[in-house]
Design goal:
The chain is of the alpha+beta class and 99 residues long. The protein is 41% helix and 30% strand. The model has no long low-confidence stretch (mean pLDDT 93).
């Protein structure tokens, strides 16, 4: 079954102004997965089969776990049989219906 997730992950135990170095590490993991993804300002969307996508989430967690004592993860998922190119298709479908 195809799934699109939107998720965010970052450490909560860092007293730094910017968490972008940690987000960038997770983004490296996502890019290396080979799955379709889109980075957004508040999270990243990934599309693939359930086990593949959840494997990427786990790999991101494992990357940040190396030097974090507390990690925040938020995941939303849309699962649909037979969907292809959902990342672009969902957006395009909505845009086509705009007035």
């Amino acid at each position: 079954m195809s799934v699109i997730i939107d998720f965010s992950i970052f450490p909560m135990d860092k007293n730094e102004q910017s968490l972008s170095p940690y987000v960038a590490r997770a983004l490296d993991v996502i890019e290396k997965s080979g799955l379709a993804f889109e980075l957004g300002p508040m999270g990243t969307s990934i599309e693939g089969e359930w086990d593949e996508v959840m494997g990427v989430v786990d790999a991101c967690y494992r990357e940040l776990e190396k030097d974090s004592d507390r990690i925040y993860i938020n995941v939303k998922a849309d699962c649909r049989k037979g969907r292809k190119n959902g990342l672009s298709g969902k957006v395009l479908s909505a845009q086509e219906k705009q007035c």
